[in-house]
Amino acid sequence: MGGEAADTFFIREAEAADAPAMLRFAQAIFAEPGLYLPIAADEFTVTLAEEEAIIKRHHDQENAVFLLAFDADGVLCGMLNARGSERKALRHAVEFGMSVGQAYRRRGVGRALLAALLEWAHRTPPVTRIELRVYVENEPARRLYESFGFQVEGRRRHAIFQDGRYHDDVIMSRLV
């Protein structure tokens, strides 16, 4: 691949019409074995109406955003949702989760989604802190977050029980 141009991705906020594609994307992600997400495929039971309500909740809440990444052909290839508390004392902090489709990993989708999240956070007045939890073993994700200035704040031992064993995760954050 030397000398080829990097992939480019279009990032925008989710809309109600995206709900069917988002459900298909999530079902495909959760069905992958060995993925660093604390949910099994059979546990993901979100309906179309529930997905539409989730999108609406993100639109209506000042300190929330649901971002989607599309490739040049308009194929959904990544999702990032960030949401903060409605409590006044906690509104400034948002926690996010991100998933990238298997065929698009290590091609810049996660980087594009994180850049869009930070851009949104900088123009969203109550947001001054962004945080996440990531499996200790998920080195590629941890390196990506660190490249955006996220720092490890703590480790949760045996935080997740998956695939017959316990996994630690780390809490990372970045101030806006």
Polypeptide structure, described:
The chain is of the alpha+beta class and about 180 residues long. The protein has a domain at about 10-130: 3-Layer(aba) Sandwich (Aminopeptidase), CATH 3.40.630.30. It is about 25% helix and about 35% strand. The protein is built from four helices and seven strands, in the order βααβββαβαββ. It has helices at about 20-30, 50-60, 110-120, 140-145; strands at about 10-15, 65-70, 75-85, 95-100, 130-135, 150-160, 165-175. Strands 1-2-3-4-5-7-6 form a seven-stranded mixed sheet, sandwiched between helices. α1 crosses α2. The longest helix is centred in the middle third of the chain and has 14 residues, at about 110-120. The model is unreliable at about 1-5 (pLDDT under 50).
Strand content: 25-35%
The CATH superfamily of the domain at 10-129 turns out to be Gcn5-related N-acetyltransferase (GNAT)
- The structural class is alpha+beta
Helix content: 25-40%
Q: How many strands appear in the DSSP assignment? A: 7
Largest sheet: 7 strands, mixed
Quaternary arrangement of the chains shown?
single chain
| Terminal-residue CA separation | 35 Å
Counting DSSP H or I runs of 4 or more residues, the number of helices is: 4
Low-confidence stretches: 1-5
Overall geometry comes to globular
- Average pLDDT value? 93
Strand order of the largest sheet: 1-2-3-4-5-7-6
CATH class of the domain at 10-129: Alpha Beta
CATH architecture of the domain at 10-129: 3-Layer(aba) Sandwich
